[in-house]
Structures are given as structure tokens and as C-alpha cells.
Amino acid sequence: MEQLTIEGAHVFTPVVHEDDRGAFAEWFREDELAAAAGHPLRLAQANCSVSRAGVLRGVHFAAVPPGQAKYVTCVAGEVLDVVVDVRVGSPTFGRWEAIRLDAQDRKALYLAEGLGHAFMAMTDGATVVYLCSEPYAPGREFGINPLDPDLAIGWPLNLEPRLSPKDAAAPSLAKAAQQGLLPSYDDCTGYYAKLRKG
Predict the structure, then answer these.
(1) Catalytic residues
(2) What pLDDT was estimated at residue 198?
(3) Domain boundaries in the chain?
(4) CA separation for the pair 189, 193 (Å, rounded)
(5) How far apart are CA 115 and CA 60, in angstroms?
(6) pTM over 0.85
């Protein structure tokens, strides 16, 4: 479990055991994630998304509290998975970091509550599975346009981005901040402390 440059984001690289039958990997270990995050991941929902090459989903985040932590992996094909710090007042506010998730390395990405999440499918049939700490609740779910030029996320240039109408109409990071849609860093760190206490 490796801490990324954005607080609350970790990448897990499992040991993949391969032989003539295929491959096996432990893609989620609660003990290792709890040690890295400081608390266990409450499992409230599991999602599976299948996308064509070029499909771009996100940047999505939920209001804190309670937010929605995510533990994400790719079980078929490949995606470029991106975490964005949308927490107003964070030392890394507006920063993003990208990790390639694929069916070979079996890496997983953990994003704490309050962080933004997006991914682009690099292959047809890219299948992403993710565990969520809270169920989907439309009234507290928000988005930022993943093509916001001020964010300047380094999406692959060889693919034409294909967004849902909702994601395409999402505001820029600056506009979301002006509208009061973004979580605050203080609220998030307070919530993380509460989770650590149990």
C-alpha cells in the first residue's frame, strides 16, 4: 500500500500468482488498507462499470460528511484512473494524480472521502469494480468537468473523450468552488479523525 502525493489516496499493488491455469491475486486486504488509511473501509455498496475505449467518467465526489470513500480496480482491459483533490483548503487542492489500472498488474486505488474520482477507458470492455463506503445518494453527489482546462488532467491524446451529458455539463473546479459545492479540507480531516476513533 503506497501513499500517493495527495493525502488520503493510496495505491495497492498485489502479488499476482500465475501458472498454467491462470492467475490469482488478493486485490483487497482490509488490514493493509486500515493500516494505511487509519481506519477500516466501511462497505456499503459495490459497483461494476463496463466502458468502451475513450469513455471518460467523472470527476465525481460526494458531500462530506459522510462523503464516499472508494476502492477501485480494473478486472478487464485497462483504464487511466485519476484522483483529484477537490477539498477546499487542502495543501494539494486542485492537484491530480493518475494511475493505470489493468487486468495484468491488478493494482487498486483507494480514495478517501472528499476526493474526486474519474477514469478513462483505454480499451473496449474496460471493466472497473469499486467498493464504496456509502451508498449512492443523488442529493449529495457532485461532479467537476474532467476536461476543465485549469485542472489540465493529462488524458491520453490518442482517444477521443466520450462523456455523459451530465459529466459534460459539470462545472469547472473554480465554478464549483464559487457555487459552494466542494468539500472543505477541515470538514474532511475532522471526519477522518472521527472514523479513526470508531
Answers:
(1) 60, 130
(2) 77
(3) 2-197
(4) 6
(5) 8
(6) yes
